[in-house]
Each structure stands twice: as C-alpha cells, then as structure tokens.
Amino acid sequence: MRVAAIDCGTNSIRLLIADVTDGRSTDIARRMEIVRLGEGVDRTGRLSDAALARTRKALQVYAAEIAELGIDRVRMCATSASRDAANAADFRDMVRGVLGVDPEVITGDEEARLSFAGAVAGLDAAPPFLIFDIGGGSTEFVTGSARVEHAISMDIGCVRMTERHLHSDPPAAAEVAAATRDITEAVETALAAVPGRSAGTLVGLAGTVTTVTALALGLPSYDSARIHHARVSRAAVAKVADELLAMTTAERLALPVMHPGRADVIAGGALILKIIMDRVGRTELVASEHDILDGIAFSLS
User: Fold this and answer.
1) 40-60 pLDDT per residue, tens
2) Which stretches make up the Ppx/GppA phosphatase N-terminal domain (predicted)?
3) In terms of CB atoms within 10 Å, which end of the chain has fewer, N or C?
4) Same structural domain for residues 14 and 69?
C-alpha cells in the first residue's frame, strides 16, 4: 500500500510517501519545509495570517506530489500549535481546501504513541526505551518496550522557549538562566510521570536532536544515513548546546549542517536536549531520523 503521511508541527511541515507492507516501510519521498505555523502562538493564542499562508504554500506542493505518485491513503496530523490556537478552525478549513482531507489535531497521547511506533521500528537497542521528541511548541516523553507504557507532553519546544526567553542575539546569560529554570521544571514534571531514569536506552527524535547530532559528529553536511541511530555522549551534547547558545543567528546559519529555518531557534532546542540528558542522568543518547512521521505512515497500513 502506498501511503502519504504529513506531520504539521509548530516549526515544520513534513511529508513521507512510502510503500508499507507487513509492518515494513520503503521510502518513496521525504520532504520538509520550515513554515513556523506556531509563530507567536505562545503570546497571541492565534495562528497568524502569514503563518497560515506559508503552510498553505507548502501543502500545495505536497498535494501535487501526492496526486502525481498515486497514493492509496493520506493522513495528516497536526500537533502543538494547532492544538493551542483559538483560530484552529481556519487552519482546518485551509487544509481541507488544499489537501482534500481533514487534518487530525491529535492529542499529546496520540502524538506520543505515533512517535514511539516510528522510533522503535528497526531500532537495535536495549529496552525499555525513553523516547523524547523535541518539537517547536512541545516535547513528548514516552517510555515502553514493545508498546507505549507511559507518556506525557510538556509545553517546552525550541520555538516556544526562544520566543518566551531567548530574545537577544546571542542570548544573554539571564535569558539562558530563565529558560533553564523553565525547561528544568518541565522535565522534572515529565520524569515524575514517566519512568525515564530507569530506561535502558534514551532515544531522541526530530530536528533539534538530529542537527545537534550532526554537529557533534562533525559532519561536513547534513547526512541522514550517518545521523540515524548514531550514539552521542552527554558531554558532546552539552558542548554543542553551549556553543550554539554563544553564537549569533548568523553564525549558526553558516554551519554546514544547519537548515536555514532552524538557525534562530536551534539554541533553545539544544538547551532542552542538554537538560533532558542531565536530568535523566544518561551518558549517551541514540538519535533517530524516524519519528512521528513514520508512525503516521504505519498507522495507514
């Protein structure tokens, strides 16, 4: 069965077209655009007209590719920003008009379940797993072995923390301290709800984790094959996070692995990653290129 999975988060919108058979998936196409749908939502409570327009433009490109490749089933899931917004109905109407299907504004629990399913497929590591997905507006924490056993979604993400705290370029020490307090409180709340400290393997998902991994590995360019299932030490993560926080946006933008749409928020995401590793107390994490997008694809088979 050929399926199309779309994940629309606070920062990016991504497309996976895959052939799925008996729990196995073969990629036909993967696409990602930074549309910053959740820009300003933490402050205004609404999706801006500009953000909706950027998202519509990306969806139009995806819809054309879906039509061209002969898709059997399509599922689009929308996460943090469209859960929080007062004008979420405008977003749903726009998606229906462009894509021909309704977006599913999924709960944090469903987001966690799909992320877990995508992350554990093909993962050769010791269970139980603590899987965390650092998004633009929220971070999901999930524990389990063959299935989800505990999950919680916290309102910390690279866009939300940057907009809330990291206003200077580069961030001032007081701003980093305020973000650190906010993130640490949220991570401790999450770890009180999910038994992450007893996990056998820590698995990190999404663009913050994969970009930090690329930097820690010293890659000359972004290489998904080398990043997927790479192991990165806590010390290496801390070093990269501190370096990113000390850089200006322009300096981050010049890094060869950096997507242009991440340069202004990656320091906030890296700080979240650093604090998660510190509070969990693990010496390394496994980075995964497979995440909620793959879970959405598997759900269609």
Assistant:
1) 888 899 999 999 999 999 999
2) 16-298
3) N
4) yes
Structural domain for 100, as ranges: 2-106
Bridge partners (DSSP) of residue 34 are: 12
Residues 57 and 129 in one domain: no
Q: Tell me how many domains the chain contains.
A: 2
C-alpha 152/C-alpha 168 separation (Å) is 31
Residue 10 lies in a domain: yes
- For the chain, give the longest Cα–Cα distance: 53
Domain co-membership, 187 together with 256: yes
C-alpha dist (Å) from residue 2 to 19, 26, 32, 66: 4, 9, 19, 10
Q: DSSP letter string over 60-117? A: HHHHHHHHHHT-SEEEEEE-HHHHH-TTHHHHHHHHHHHHSS--EE--HHHHHHHHHH
pLDDT band at 227 (very low <50, low <70, confident <90, very high): very high
- Classify residue 141 as exposed, middle or buried by CB count within 10 Å of its CB (0-12, 13-18, 19+): buried
Same domain, 127 and 63: no
Residue 149 parent element (H or E): strand 148-154
Cα–Cα distance, 60 to 120 (Å, whole number): 31
Query: Residues 74-84: pLDDT tens digits?
Result: 999 997 667 77
**Residue 69 resides in a domain:** yes
- Give the Cα separation of 144 and 150 in Å (integer): 7
Q: Are 291 and 133 in contact (CB under 8 A)?
A: yes
Locus of tokens 């879906």: 66
- The secondary structure of 3-30 as a DSSP string is EEEEEE-SSEEEEEEEEEETTEEEEEEE
Does residue 36 sit in the same domain as residue 137? no
Judge whether 97 and 89 are in contact, CB under 8 Å: no
Residues of the chain with pLDDT > 70, as a percent, come to 99
pTM above 0.85, yes or no: yes
Q: Which of 74, 106, 138 is the last residue of a domain?
A: 106
